[in-house]
Amino acid sequence: MSIFLDLSGIWQCEIPGQSAPLRLPGTLDESGIGFPDNPSQQWKVDEVRRIGFWREGDPIVTRLTRKHTFEGQAKISRVINLKVPQDKRLFIEVERARHLRLLVNGEEIPPYQPASICTPYVFEVTGKLTGDDQIMFLSDNSYPGWPRDAIVYSSAASDETQTNWNGLLGYIRLRTEEQNFIDSVRVYPEGDTVDVCVKVDAARNWAGEIRLASEALAGGGNAQIREAVKAGRRELRYIGLSLRPDAKKWDLEEGNLCDLTVTLDGMENKTVSFGVRDFEAFDGHLTLNGRRFFLRGEANCAVFPETGYPPMDKESWKVILQKYRDYGVNCIRFHSHCPPEAAFAAADEMGMLMQPELSHWDPEHAFTSEEARAYYKTEFLGILDMLANHPSFVMLTFGNELQADRKGHAFMDELLAAGRERDRTRLFANGSNPHYGALGPDPQSDFYTSTDVPGHHLRATSAEFRGWLNQIGPDFRTDYQAGAETVTNNAGQPFFSFEVGQYEVLPDFDEIKEYKGVTGPENLKHIREKVRAAGLERNWKRQVEATGELSLLCYRAEVEAALRTPDYSGISLLGIQDFPGQGTALVGMMNSHLQPKPYDFAKPERFRAFFRDALPLALLPRFTYTTGETLQCRIKMANYGKTDLSGVLEWSLKGECFEQKGTLPKTAARCGWLTEIGELSIPLTSIDKAEKLTLTISFAGCENAYPIWVYPDAQPVCPENVYECRTLDEKAREILDQGGRVYLAPDATEKALAHSLKTQFSTDFWSVCTFPSQAGAMGQWINDTHPIFRRFPTSFHTDWQWWPMASQRAVILPERIESIITEMDSYAFLRPMSQLFECKCGNGKLLFSTLNLHNLSLYPEARALQSAIYAYLGSDEFEPKQDLSVKWIDALMR
């Protein structure tokens, strides 16, 4: 029986130039040991300087700032007095550290087992302790002899998120064992049998009985085996033990666990828990217990700003995982890191899937160095052993966005084979988004997760706004089946998407007060000062909300496109939580502290409404119609729950002055499939004014709703008392001078609008500091109470009816003015921009538009908006308040 002595407490830490007390478990940062963070050591500093977001003398603006930082060897020491047990074996253990060595009374102790930054350190000190001993750890976060750059670039040690902390975490203890003891027990359920691996460490030869006992085992729950073990460390394998037919399965949201106790000759025993489950790749799909399911993933990038490292206890992880579950997540991908074992213990109990990765992000030459191959093999096999009994651990890849040469790929193949030899109950792949999808699926991997396969892009948007959402338009028939088929048909592998989303939201400064730990939000404070200097503080929260609503809209588009794809096994997001590094990528519904942002768009129930296991889908070709048209769309049911569903699909289309409803014939939706339910055909008659409707569909208790806009079928005609022009020509100047009305609507081109930028429907992708080719547009902030919108229903933010107009240009103004439609800008620039504004000009009145409506007449929404503008311009309500000169207006176009 293992006996533990806790060694936590105050130790002494020495680094070059400093010596100070260090509280363990903990990091140097937490004890205030180290040096000031260096602004020159920030993300793409030259690029950030070039775009004007950072200047010499500014704080770190691309990530959080560590209050204390140090990279190198730290000497952590303490004198320990204890009565040394006789005829026992002694071990010093540290649950989590960086590169760690141990000296006892000046003598270096070799590690008992290979270790890594993701797995525990164990040192045998039998015969080394006197009772009054100096214990010294040499903790080095420069990773000597290991692939330092690939580790520090990963989420496991990047200052962009977790921080490259130095210290000792989790348990720090002295373990006492008998001369012969059970070192570990690993349990591998598969089908109706289970394999058990017992690692025995014998100081001397031993013969006797090993007994295995578990309520999950058939035949009374016991197995007794006679063994003879020679001195040394031996692994005993018991293959194909029968499970009880009624053994409860571990499943999503069903944390059914069993205990298994191994007894050595009636004395030594070790008990572990495990879950009976089968996680497989079958017929091109992921399956759990033989059932196809849809993976709803989220990338955890180790953002823990208060401590700089992940929690080490199970209860904290249960809180974290519940936050993800509240948003509909059923699988956590740990981006280039593996969290502590406590995270998996929590997931086991909650029925949550976990996908760790090696601490590896090398987008150039993965596995090409000998030190990288040696280290990552140790880390990989160590993770497999550490997590063997955790049913939540279902998949692993060798790192994020790896690129390798032929030599590196050969090693990947060797590592995949070694993993399968060690553990057949998990799935492995050589990388997450390897080669950015350019090579397609790796034939040796068990699954494929990427943004692309050759010839097919598999996200709604990406860097440079590649993808259907910004390039084609809101067609909710779009899916990724053609790309998915190239994977499932050719490679036969399950496929799920990678880092989908990344829709940026403007920062909420209320989070600043939450930073009380080892990192400071100097980046957020810097942005706040820019906002104040730009005079935006009064309406900032409303703009945050506008970007958040648009982000939520885009996330939904991503999710439904994935659900419409029959051969998809899931979608993996980035992300529901903000990422405070890489230029400050605030893409989440939750902030960096994993708190829902204090806005309606961030409520978990709104995201969970479409991010769920069963959802009826309306395959709408568009969201805008004219009176007299017929709304036609197919209805499908994505059912990835645990049971078949059947029922009658009910639908309704409702608005202020319109209502229709009906049903489709009763049908069944098989569990694990996308099922065709039927087709809607709804005449849009008797609608004599522009109206927003809601299409609601409901099947077997599952509901979904879509906005629909219907407009009168009329061609817009400019009023006779309004002069419409593309440039501020002489006639326009004369009319203004005479007190007339001018509608200045230039072509949405760079030539026509010299001081402008190209806009897109969605918000920015990730951050402009990471992708500086982006113009920086963040979507529209609309004055929805303006009289124009009585004839063109809208909210205060971009929605689907704005797609053609939102994808045009915005004029960059010389100063901030009142706009009817403001184009919001990235926090990096905060330029005053507009798509629609009005003013007194000269003696007359002017409306300025960059919406390009005169070139968008094929779109009913553009015609309707143009009609609404014309009606306003010709009415007595056209009475602008602000005064701008002719010269001021003219300068916008030159």
How would you characterize the overall build of this protein?
There is one protein chain. With 894 residues, the chain is an alpha+beta fold. It has 15 helices and 52 strands. The strands form 14 sheets. Strands 45, 46, 47, 48, 49, 50, 51 and 52 form an 8-stranded mixed beta sheet that branches. Strand 23 (295-300), helix 3 and strand 24 form a beta-alpha-beta unit. Helix 5 runs parallel beside helix 6. The protein starts with a strand and ends with a helix. The relative contact order is 0.08.
Shape call: globular
Number of strands: 52
Mean pLDDT: 97
How far is the first residue's CA from the last residue's CA? 83 Å
Tell me the radius of gyration.
31 Å
Spans of 5+ residues with little confidence (pLDDT < 50)? none
Which percent range describes the beta-strand content? Answer: 25-35%
Largest sheet entry: 8 strands, mixed
Residues in helices, as a percent range: 10-25%
What class, by secondary structure content? alpha+beta
- Output the number of helix runs: 15
Short characterization:
By secondary structure, this protein is an alpha+beta fold. Helices cover 17% and strands 32% of the residues.
Write the layout of secondary structure elements.
Elements: E1 3-6, E2 9-15, E3 18-24, E4 26-27, H1 45-50, E5 65-66, E6 73-81, E7 89-97, E8 99-104, E9 107-109, E10 121-124, E11 132-140, H2 148-153, E12 167-177, E13 180-190, E14 193-202, E15 206-213, E16 222-229, E17 232-242, E18 258-264, E19 268-274, E20 279-282, E21 285-288, E22 291-292, E23 295-300, H3 314-326, E24 331-334, H4 341-350, E25 353-355, H5 370-386, E26 395-397, H6 406-422, E27 427-429, E28 448-450, E29 452-453, E30 456-457, H7 468-471, H8 481-488, E31 495-497, E32 500-501, E33 519-520, H9 522-533, H10 540-563, E34 570-574, H11 604-608, E35 614-619, E36 624-626, E37 630-639, E38 645-647, E39 650-654, E40 659-663, E41 667-669, E42 673-683, E43 691-699, E44 702-711, E45 722-725, H12 730-737, E46 741-744, E47 756-758, E48 777-782, H13 803-806, E49 809-812, E50 821-825, E51 833-841, E52 844-849, H14 860-873, H15 886-891
Parallel strand pairs: 23-24, 23-34, 24-25, 26-27, 28-31, 32-34, 36-44, 45-46, 46-52
Antiparallel strand pairs: 1-12, 2-3, 2-6, 4-12, 5-33, 6-11, 7-10, 7-12, 8-9, 8-11, 13-14, 14-17, 15-16, 15-18, 18-19, 20-21, 21-22, 29-30, 35-37, 37-42, 38-41, 39-40, 39-43, 43-44, 47-49, 48-50, 49-51, 50-51, 51-52
Helix pairs in contact: 3-4, 5-6
